Amino acid sequence: MKRVEVVDQIHDYTFPCQVPDYFGVDLEDRVSRNENTPKEKFHTIDILTTHMVIAARLLLPAGGRVVAKRFDLVQFGDYDYKKLIREIELSRLIKHRHIARYYQCFWEENSERRPIYFYIIRERLDFSLDKYYAHISKDDGSSGERKRDHRLLSALFVQILKALQFLQEHDIIHRDISPKNIGVNQNGFLIKLIDFGCSRKQSPSLEHTLQPGADYLYQAPEMLAGKPYDTKVDIWSTAVVGIEMLGCKVLTPTGWSPHTIKADMLKRILKVCGWQKSDQYEQVYDNVFHDELGLRKPMLPQFEKEIPTKRLEPDRGPLTKDHFLDLVKIMLSVDPRKRPNAEKCLMEAKYLQVMNRKYDEVHNVPSPRESFLELIKRLRDEPPTNLQNDEEKEARS
After folding, report:
1. Is the pLDDT of residue 160 over 80?
2. φ, ψ at 233 (rounded to 5°)
């Protein structure tokens, strides 16, 4: 370990910390690093409530840009420790091409050998999706408004959904899908999930529903209403993130208050997505819409009116405005039982089929039929099971 100095670029002060010897300053960071930061000093990318994010470069043959999430353990309570433990365990488990790579953990100790700072090291991409959105939407509403490329929008959905398909297969709920937690590499428009601080394993006892996800603006209605939820809340958040590429936060209420944000969000969601007064909704939401929100009349969906599809470029084959709307409508089903999982979105949504095949071909992913035939081949090569001998052994035991 070596002692270095880090510049907090948000609050403009320098502090010491210890990092591994193979950590180097990332002088090539033209997105986050200030020009006047001394060359020998590291720099922060973000400062959050429980941790800060430090940029670095690996001084190893393979090289690579990384971020170090630095947690101040002195400020931690019991819930913070539980959350950190889950993030460490999940980070070590999760390996997927559309999820930022986990490298290692390390920590700093005080004179009594007690940990005071804890670091999680992950792969760093060029920038987060919120910064990309800010760049492409800066001229929205003017004569120089930038049309969005259907191919990039479809590629965004496909890559996030592939990561979610992997997580759902392992019963993991991300719970904080938002532009700030999605990384982008300019080369090839590579998309990866970059933060798992709010993630949980899905529990049959519904323990995962006791603590909600982080950002209300991307939460599914069942989470906002305090009802049981599952991995499909990430499908909802992905739809909201995708729509935001068009330069609008379609489900964000105007003039909302921190004290009433959940109710304000639910009212806005129902205005855009519509709802029908029926037993099906009451099975999920009880009487939340009627009693707590004061809604009496059903509402028709307003997707076409609220989503600015005019900012999309002309249609390209199956990449059409109508197919895009069909996709977000089903992903934004207020009834979570009608909301598809990630695999179904990828397999059935016309807006995603071309890009889904493209990414499978690039990474040599076999089709379901090819996977089945490979299974048949393995079964054919296995020696036959002698059921009679197995029964005799079981009887003797």
Report:
1. yes
2. -65, -30
Compute the Cα dihedral for 64, 136, 235, 366 and give only its sign.
negative
Q: Which domains does the chain have, with CATH numbers?
A: 2-123 (3.30.200.20), 127-362 (1.10.510.10)
DSSP secondary structure of 166-220: HHHHTTEE----SGGGEEEETTTTEEEE---TT-EE--TT-GGGSS--S-GGG--
Measuring CA to CA, which residue among 323, 273, 276 is closest to residue 301? 273
Position 207 pLDDT exceeds 70:
no
Q: Which token pair is 38?
A: 């001394």
Q: Hey, what are 383's tokens?
A: 């020696």
Backbone angles phi, psi at 68, to 5 degrees: -115, 115
Query: Residues of 225-260 as b/e, b for ≥16 C-beta within 10 angstroms?
Result: bebebbbbbbbbbbbbbbbbbbbeebbbbeebeeee
- Do residues 164 and 342 make contact, with C-beta atoms less than 8 angstroms apart? yes
Cβ atoms < 10 Å from Cβ of 353 = 17
Q: What's the CA gap between 98 and 164, in Å, rounded?
A: 9
Residues in the chain: 397
CA 122 – CA 101 distance, rounded (Å): 6
pTM exceeds 0.85? yes
Q: Which residue has the tokens 């002060």?
A: 13
Q: Which residues contact 299 (CB under 8 A, 6 or more apart)?
A: 270, 271, 274, 275
Q: What is the pairing mode between strands 42-47 and 2-8? A: parallel
Q: Is 318 exposed, middle or buried (0-12, 13-18, 19+ CB in 10 A)?
A: middle
Please report which confidence band the pLDDT of residue 70 belongs to, taking 50, 70 and 90 as the band edges: very high
Q: Which DSSP category does 70 fall into?
A: E
Written as six digits, the tokens of 367 are 């089709």
State the Cα–Cα distance between residues 256 and 263, nearest whole angstrom.
9
Contacts of 51 (CB under 8 A, 6+ apart): 69, 70, 71, 72
Q: Which of 280, 384, 293, 295 is nearest to 338 (CA)?
A: 280
Q: What mean pLDDT do residues 15-32 have?
A: 90
